[in-house]
Design a protein that fits this description.
alpha+beta; 3 domains; 4-stranded antiparallel β-sheet; 8 helices; elongated
Length: about 290
């Protein structure tokens, strides 16, 4: 397969000398500026099982090994493609960070898989309130789709509960708080769509940029389980957003500052539409590199 950019190339390779089991280690070769480097994939195959950059379907664990090859090539390509001068000494540590992050996510998924049958068994025997509590636990594990179906009303209630942190279900005050939180989150998303629609018709290039920014913002909301609301534009939100952009997205100062600046521009736009916004957003800091 090679994956090729303007200045670097990534190819699959295997070492020539087989081990005692007749297998050879797989790895990736990275070519840049006339230099060649390599990194192991941690898997070995029989040489005859490799065909056109993939493992033959008849080979042992072919699907798993082919998925490993695909994902590692993609991560190495992402690492190299994010650098202005993708020398190996810069690409390799970035690639290893991406691999570690992916492996951590795979471990989390494996943990969720182990918990799935236990959650389903518990859910089927519990009354409604206990089901709701269990559903919240399932959401925290990221496996809500695997829990047996509940009503849409229950799902909406627990989703709002999960986001708002309200500890009790049932009272009129609690229901009002949940309804308000859900309504404000909906308003935020509706206004963001209005904002983007306006840019699409006036500045399409800027619309494309801010459409990508909004996608990352929604990714933050989902992964960090932090609802987007105008009243929630406070220090707690900023700290969580800052951590997400630097650690989860691995952004540098200028990219981070662009995302914060675009958020502030959107919130300022909303204020001009007479929407009440937490004024703390004006204190969100940017970090331009000199």
């Amino acid at each position: 397969m090679p994956t090729t950019a303007a200045t670097y190339t990534i190819t699959l390779y295997y070492q020539n000398k087989p081990n005692a089991a007749g297998k050879v280690p797989l790895g990736l070769k990275y070519y840049f500026d006339g230099k060649q480097d390599a990194i192991s994939l941690g898997k070995s195959i029989r040489p005859k099982d490799l065909l056109n950059g993939k493992v033959r379907s008849s080979a042992e664990d072919a699907a798993l090994v082919n998925e490993l090859i695909r994902s590692r090539v993609e991560l190495l390509d992402d690492a190299a493609g994010s650098l202005e001068v993708p020398t190996w000494n810069k690409v390799k540590p970035l690639y290893l960070r991406l691999v570690a992050r992916q492996e951590e996510e795979e471990k989390k998924q494996a943990f969720n898989q182990k918990k799935r049958s236990e959650l389903i068994a518990q859910f089927r025997t519990m009354p409604t309130l206990e089901q709701q509590k269990l559903y919240r636990r399932a959401m925290e594990l990221g496996i809500e789709a695997e829990v047996p179906p509940i009503t849409q009303e229950q799902r909406d209630t627990i989703t709002a509960l999960h986001w708002s942190g309200v500890p009790v279900i049932g009272s009129a005050a609690d229901r009002a708080a949940l309804d308000a939180a859900a309504a404000e989150n909906k308003l935020f998303k509706e206004q963001l769509q209005v904002y983007l629609d306006g840019l699409e018709h006036t500045n399409r290039k800027l619309w494309q940029v801010k459409k990508s920014w909004a996608k990352v913002l929604f990714e933050f909301e989902t992964l960090r389980e932090h609802p987007l609301t105008f009243s929630g534009m406070n220090a707690k939100f900023y700290n969580a957003y800052e951590t997400f952009l630097f650690e989860d997205k691995d952004y540098y100062n200028n990219t981070f500052s662009n995302h914060v600046g675009w958020l502030k521009a959107f919130l300022s736009f909303c204020e001009k539409q007479e929407i009440r916004v937490n004024g703390y957003y004006k204190h969100f800091k940017v970090r331009w590199s000199s």
